[in-house]
Design a protein that fits this description.
The complex is a heterodimer. By secondary structure, chain A is mainly alpha-helical. Chain A has 21 helices and 4 strands. In chain A, helix 10 runs parallel beside helix 14 (about 300-325) and helix 12 runs antiparallel to helix 14. Chain A is elongated, with a radius of gyration of 37 Å. Residues about 330-340 and about 355-390 of chain A have low confidence and may be disordered. Chain B is globular. Classes of the chains: A mainly alpha, B alpha+beta.
């Protein structure tokens, strides 16, 4: 076994961009859930990070579909997805969920940051002030009542956003989980695993960013807040890792056909990224660190350092998990993409997104018109086409065969053998010019004149003496090979060329089977396909 | 179930006023952009960029498109091209049967297919991903394991085939009645025609490769680079949905040689097969080869458990 994972071995068609896409989407969903914990579930300790997490979700959201766009073979046609959306496609469906989620986050941000915009609009007069005014739609009024409304709206949207965040990322899970061609993807657990890993990565990225920004700016870290976040991360990580492990465990226990492939993948090709990377290092170590952090009363500085390291490691764990799912499970022969490189790339995206560079993404700009997707009425069927197939010839008709494979060197036989010549019926090694003929066709019971006619050497004869031409030799063969003869007449056996519904040419038995030794001779095969790794 | 339509037989479709408005707007905007981008290149080039989904074309538009494609291919390959759009026949559902007890694994079909279908050849630009594209893959399997893809290989290279103790199973597009690839295409660039052939609109495909990931038979190929098709190897008799030369960044696959079978001919792989293991015909014709095989031989479909309902049957002739 070369680890052939049909059909996945052929080429890694989904590559690193499709790793980053669920990764970033997961960060969105996770960050949003954390902001909702404060707004909806009143976890007041995380107040310092509540609005930051909302902003982070928004920024990541703007980036989420960038990898998809870059991934396309024809990014110039990306807008086709708006013109002919296929409602049964998870990728097109993602567009809808993504767009509505983006709208929700934008609106929530508007309410959550309204006060800030008003203050900014009042305090600065230049361009910034004007932009704030535009964002506020010109309404700078604020009092307790409007603040109350803002608050209520944020709470409502945050509540609505939780199921939507789960849907958003669960849907990304569906994008993979719905692919029945890939046994490792096609599991209902995929959705749940994706949601939990999303929450985990979201919390981790918030801890990481919050602490890093605080340290860089010399701010004091709110210990209550990070302690709660650390515990949340620990809890969710336990569930996420357990689910990921259970999925593989159940496959391993069932030992179905797929397991043979997966086992091979996990123990050989993905050993470093999956077993060592995803589990032994980047799951176990953070679990340990977070556990210690949650269970023991540590000094603040030490606790923070642990948490920072753990959150960074969790980010790598989720990335590795995405990588193993998307690329690893495709059964590539060697994990050529350097994981360190990949991690660097991902962190770059994280950093880039955190600085708030906004990238316009087409899917978010355009609304959708469902009228486009509904199937239009079927066109009237085409008439006046060529008539349907002519029936096959009736049995025992003369079949349209190619001329018999007789060489001019020997045929006509009567060129040498005349009717008066008495044939030698002795079983013997033939001399020239027939020395090439070595009978290997029921040779115990048969000899030349059982098929060739003694009187008329240009003819063959059937068992009952009927003379037939070489172009009808199938009748002769058919005397012994009944079922094959039947199959040949029906077109099941042997090659036919020409029109599938009309005039066709059959081949005689003798075209493929040398009558004196009819076993099929081995052939030299054409060149093997290029191996993907030979091309790269 | 969603109705399937055929591009080639669709006259001007009724559209709601709104959708016309929006589509025309998009198209107009795209045209304008393209005009700016192309800086006054030929109108053919512009038309190529603003090409709409084939199923949305009216009859005159389709005719124009075919003529333009012929002009463009002719200019590119230096031979007279015909790009036709022969529609499906009535009461025809194409099916394929492959005799596993005959196939010797010689790969003649693979090469004949490449030649017939203008697939990308070896020796093109040395891009990282560029490799010759072959729609058929022949798997070598051990007789004592039966049909077991996990232990099969496509890279066998003995001096002679069949190799002792082995049998061969060619795999290509199964033209499923319930195709996963069509289901996942986000832009409806691939669909099932009325005669059962799953086709791709090469001018609409965005190259996301979701269909490739979703296909259980690994039947689809992606043009990582501009296809390498030397001028002297071009087959200029083409079908719009079939063997016309492809471009970089899009997906392609076997169409049962749509350019041949819609004109009544056998697919190229059937005609080349030296052992007559490949059978093709109309599933609905009770006299045809396919029905005779279904009636008289024991058949199986590959990965039957995932319910793709292929119209590609494997059978044992003996």
């Amino acid at each position: 076994m070369e680890g052939f994972v049909f059909p996945n071995e052929a080429h890694v068609v989904w590559s690193v961009m499709i790793v980053l896409y669920p990764y970033i989407t997961g960060l969105v969903a996770g960050a949003f859930v954390i902001s909702s914990l404060y707004h909806v579930f009143q976890v007041t300790q995380i107040r310092p990070i509540a609005r930051f997490s909302l902003a982070a979700a928004f920024v990541f959201l703007l980036f989420a579909t960038m990898p998809l766009l870059i991934h396309l073979g024809r990014p110039d046609r990306a807008l086709n997805i708006m013109i002919t959306s296929n409602l049964t496609s998870a990728m097109a469906g993602f567009g809808y969920i993504y767009s509505s989620y983006l709208a929700l986050v934008v609106i929530e941000i508007w309410f959550a940051f309204r006060e800030d915009f008003i203050q900014r609009a009042k305090s600065s007069s230049g361009l910034v002030g004007s932009i704030c005014r535009i964002i506020l739609l010109g309404d700078l009024y604020s009092d307790d009542r409007t603040r109350e409304v803002d608050h209520k709206m944020v709470r409502f949207l945050a509540g609505l956003g939780i199921p939507m965040a789960c849907l958003l990322h669960g849907y990304v899970g569906f994008l993979f989980g719905s692919v029945k061609a890939n046994p490792w993807w096609s599991t209902p657990l995929m959705f749940v695993i994706f949601i939990f890993s999303a929450i985990v990565s979201g919390i981790a990225v918030l801890i990481f960013h919050y602490m890093s920004i605080a340290w860089l700016n010399g701010w004091k870290i709110d210990q209550d807040c990070v302690r709660v976040l650390g515990r949340l991360l620990w809890g969710f990580l336990i569930v996420a890792v357990a689910l990921e492990f259970l999925e593989v465990l159940s496959l391993a226990y069932q030992q179905t056909e797929e397991w043979e492939i997966l086992n091979h993948l996990i123990m050989k090709k993905l050993f470093w990224t999956y077993v060592v990377g995803q589990y032994l290092i980047f799951s176990l170590v953070p679990l340990l660190l977070l556990g210690v952090n949650a269970l023991f009363a540590l000094e603040d500085r030490f606790s923070n350092a642990l948490l920072w390291v753990a959150s960074l490691m969790v980010l790598v764990q989720v990335l590795l998990m995405r990588w193993n799912v998307v690329i690893g499970s495709r059964g590539m022969r060697e994990a050529r993409m350097n994981t360190v490189h990949l991690t660097g790339l991902a962190l770059l995206v994280l950093a880039g997104s955190a600085t708030g560079s906004f990238a316009a993404e087409p899917a978010a700009i355009y609304g959708r018109d469902p009228a486009h997707s509904s199937p239009a009425p079927l066109p009237p069927p085409e008439r006046g086409l060529p008539p349907n197939p002519a029936p096959n010839p009736k049995p025992d008709e003369h079949y349209p065969v190619a001329p018999p494979p007789l060489s001019e060197e020997f045929f006509p036989c009567t060129g040498c053998h005349n009717a008066k010549q008495k044939a030698n019926p002795e079983r013997r090694k033939l001399g020239p010019p027939h020395d090439a003929i070595v009978l290997k066709h029921d040779e115990q019971n048969r000899w030349c004149l059982d098929c060739h006619d003694e009187k008329n050497r240009d003819k063959l004869h059937l068992a009952n003496g009927t003379l037939i031409g070489f172009d009808e030799s199938y009748r002769l063969c058919g005397q012994c090979h009944g079922p094959t003869y039947r199959d040949w007449k029906l077109g099941i056996h042997g090659k036919r060329t020409g029109m599938w519904n009309g005039k066709k040419e059959y081949l005689l038995c003798a075209h493929c089977h040398y009558p004196h030794s009819p076993g099929f001779k081995p052939l030299q095969p054409e060149k093997a396909p290029a191996r993907p790794e030979d091309v790269r | 179930m969603k109705k399937q339509e055929d591009m080639s037989s669709s006259p001007a479709r009724r559209r709601s006023a709104r959708s016309i408005h929006r589509r025309d707007f998009l198209r107009g905007a795209a045209s304008l952009l393209a005009l700016v981008a192309s800086g006054g290149c030929g109108s053919d080039r512009l038309a190529a960029i603003t090409q709409r989904h084939l199923k949305q074309l009216t009859r005159p538009e389709l005719k124009e498109t075919l003529e333009r494609l012929e002009r463009q291919y002719e200019a590119k390959y230096g031979v007279k091209f015909s790009v036709h759009s022969t529609p499906p026949r009535e009461e025809t559902l194409y099916a394929y049967a492959l005799d596993l007890s005959r196939c010797v694994g010689c790969r003649r079909c693979v090469k004949a297919c490449v030649k017939e279908n203008n697939s990308s050849r070896e020796g093109g630009q040395t891009s990282a991903h560029n490799m010759p594209i072959e729609w058929i893959r022949v798997l070598e399997m051990a007789k004592d394991r039966g049909v077991d893809v996990t232990h099969s290989t496509a890279y066998y290279e003995p001096a002679k085939v069949p190799r002792e103790g082995h049998f061969y199973m060619p795999v290509q597009c199964h033209q499923c009645e319930n195709p996963s690839c069509v289901k996942v295409c986000p832009v409806e660039a691939t669909w099932k025609e009325r005669d059962g052939i799953v086709v791709i609109d090469y001018d609409w495909c965005i190259g996301c490769r979701y269909c490739m990931v979703a296909c259980p038979y690994g039947a689809r190929r992606f043009n990582w680079a501009e296809p390498h098709l030397p001028k002297d190897q071009v087959n200029p008799h083409t079908h719009l949905l079939g063997n016309r030369p492809r471009y970089r960044g899009i997906v392609e696959k076997c169409t049962f040689c749509i350019q041949r079978v819609r004109n009544g001919r056998y697919p190229a792989c059937v005609e080349i097969c030296p052992v007559g293991a490949r059978k093709f015909g109309n599933r609905l014709d009770p006299e045809g080869e396919i029905r005779q095989i279904l009636e008289r031989k024991r058949i199986f479909v590959f990965k039957e458990e995932i319910n793709t309902l292929p119209k590609f049957y494997y059978f044992y002739g003996i």
